[in-house]
Design brief:
heterodimer; A: mainly alpha; Arc Repressor Mutant, subunit A; 2 domains; B: two-stranded antiparallel ribbon; rod-shaped
Chain lengths: 184, 229
Amino acid sequence: MDQQLIEQCKRGNAFAQKRLFDQYANRLFRVSLRYVRNESDAEEVLMNGFMKAFQGISDFTYRDDKGLEAWLRRIIVNEALQHLRANRSLPLFQPEEMAGIQPDSNPLPDMGLDAERIYALIRELPTGYRTIFNLYVIEGYTHREIAERLAISENTSKSQLSKARALLQEWLTSYGYEATRRTS
Amino acid sequence: MKRPDEPLDHLVRQAINDLPDTPPPGSAFNADQVWRQMHPRLQGAAPQRRSGTVWWLAAACASVLLISWLYVELTPAEKGASVINRPPAASIPANRPVGPLDLRQRTAVRDQSAQVVRERPVRRVNVPERNLVEQTKLTEAITAMPAETLRIVAETIPSTPEVTKALATVPKRQFRVVHANELQAEDEKRPKLYQTGNVVRLGDEGELQPDEGEIAKPIILRLTNKPNQ
């Protein structure tokens, strides 16, 4: 079904574009919101990302729905990084960034340790930590790729990721999360 | 190489995958509103893509026409045939260089096996500007005439400087150089024919009847102005 949608979008069909937007807007808004904390900025990132997707969809080859979603997600992530760079939010790596940081507010206080709470805690991370944690843990980039994208060294990426993990684990522990650290 | 998987990373990835396909709780995100903002920009970008496509198509058509024209003009067989079929006067350009002119006699060798246009330099002359085109036409016309016609024309046409110069460009007849001994040897090989008109008979008329079995042997005196022959 998505394949027909893509073919119609390639022909510039506005109804097909609207259907594709409705199908992925909420999911990709969440992606945008993981990188850009402000909601209006996240909407702008989403809008610019879809604009680029519709303009470049003629070069996209549909294989399956996962491939389509991964392509759209990559566009949104690139757009979010560009937004952070334009707003001078990157690089924002300060050594003392980690000290004494607590979530701004207690997000979703009445909910347990579920997906929404973990998502909310990720959004509470400082910009530098959050960006590298998202890129490495969720998007699956390597430290070398992150270093190239953010114009930082690989060691900086590794140290920022380590600090982000420590901070997030501390917050999760306060919500009852207990994990045995293991390396495979 | 598989990267080390932290329990925290696994937990976070699982939580992200389990998120519902809705905006976060407490968010004011409205997909329809975002679409309404985006749709005019999307429509504005479409004509730009179409005009770009039109420009690319026009450029491609122009390129195809140019390449076709170059191919037709520069094909060797076509070019050779067009030169040979062209009349001599038509091959003269309208504006030729003024001053020392390297006149070239363009000879079309019409061989059945290969049609080749050969150029060979004839003579370098200084030509006045006003007589340039007429003299060139005259030269090429004379060049195309056979040698017998040229001789007759040279006797009948009054001699002018232009005609003299033009006739000077006609190729001269080539003679084979032969040694005198070779001519003498050829003469000796040739069968000797005696002409009765050059023979003087001596004696009376009655002696004209030869005896039986006897052949009359006239005295032969060759008429020649060379004393040693």
